[in-house]
Each structure stands twice: as structure tokens, then as C-alpha cells.
Amino acid sequence: MPRREDLDGDNIFVLHDFLTPDECQYYINASEAAGYGDAPITTSRGAIIAKDVRNNDRVMVDDTKLAAELFERLLPFLPANIDGSIPCGLNERFRYYRYTPGQKFDWHLDGRFYRDNGEMSHLTFMIYLNDGCTGGETLFNLSRSGGIRMDDPVLRVTPTMGKALVFRHRILHTGAMVLAGTKYVLRTDVMYRAS
């Protein structure tokens, strides 16, 4: 059974042992079989490759069955209400990320995903599929000032196999550079609908 640990209340929390080691290896193998490519960033001009900001590898897979299975496991741990909305599922578009030495994703905010039926995402849901890399932590800027300064408080989450990380899209964060080894992540969004 996963165990929830709050890092910043409902804004940032982890679920230890969300996936088993066998499940993690299955998803790593599936992602490698699907084939990785460059990971773009989303800008006002659309998706672009900007290796100075983000240079990790990515593969996207749409999987409604996986979304339903993981949501059922995740639901008991989710905030029951965000801005008058209740959790209703996961975005079926899964993004697998692979980071090798020298790869990172600079400071950014995650964007919302909207459905035509009014559902929208509020939370990022990512699972670390392996451990054993050096670096690669997810860092959060907890300053409410809106800027990044060297003296701002930073929360550090270390990749651990099977650990899920859930956080509000509006929180500034970065995927720190991997220094040694390889880091694999499975990521999607938690969808909410008006209650």
C-alpha cells in the first residue's frame, strides 16, 4: 500500500511505493520499445526544441486503460476538492522522460490540460521508475515572490524507484541535471471537474 508524505500540504506530496519494482521495470522497457526522441518545450509560439532549457528525451503514449488503473490507485490520496472541482481521472497522454548525464529541465511551470467537456488538470502526477542516478532531483521554489533568487527556499525530491510525486501545476520547479546514471520518469496530469 502506498504511503503519503506531505511536503507542502496538498500542494506537493509524495507517495512512497506507489509502483512495485516489477511495474517500474515494465514501464521502462515499454518506453524504450516505443522509442525516445527530443523533448520540446511549449511556448507562445508553440512547441519548440530548446536544448538550453530542456535536453532530456521523451516519448508520448496515449493509454486510457493505464490512466484508469493508476487513477484508481491514486484517488484515495488526492485532494478531494480544488477550487470547487473534484478529481475525475488522469490525462491518458502519458509522457515518459529519460535523463542521461548532462540532461536537465530548467525552472518552469507545468501547463494545464483542458478537455472539451470542461474537465481540466490541476496537478502534475509523475512516478520515478528507477533510482541509482546521481543528481536528477526535482527541485521546487517555495518562494511566494514569483521570482527565482539564490536565497529562495527550495524543496528537493530525490528520485526513488516507485515513488510518485504529485504537485500543483502553478509551482515553479526544475528537473536538476543528472550527473551519473539514467533517470526514468512516467508523467501525466490529474483531471478535475466541477462538483
Automatic annotation (TrEMBL):
The keyword ATP-binding does not apply. Gene3D superfamilies: q2cbj1_9rhob like domain (2.60.120.620). It holds the Pfam family 2OG-FeII_Oxy_3. SUPFAM superfamilies: Clavaminate synthase-like. The keyword Magnesium does not apply. GO terms for molecular function: iron ion binding; L-ascorbic acid binding; procollagen-proline 4-dioxygenase activity. Keywords: Dioxygenase, Iron, Metal-binding, Oxidoreductase. SMART domains: P4Hc. Its cofactor is L-ascorbate. Residues 10-191 form the Prolyl 4-hydroxylase alpha subunit domain. InterPro entries: P4HA-like (IPR045054), Pro_4_hyd_alph (IPR006620), Pro_4_hyd_alph_FE2OG_OXY (IPR044862). Signal peptide: none annotated. This is Prolyl 4-hydroxylase alpha subunit domain-containing protein. It comes from Limnoglobus roseus.
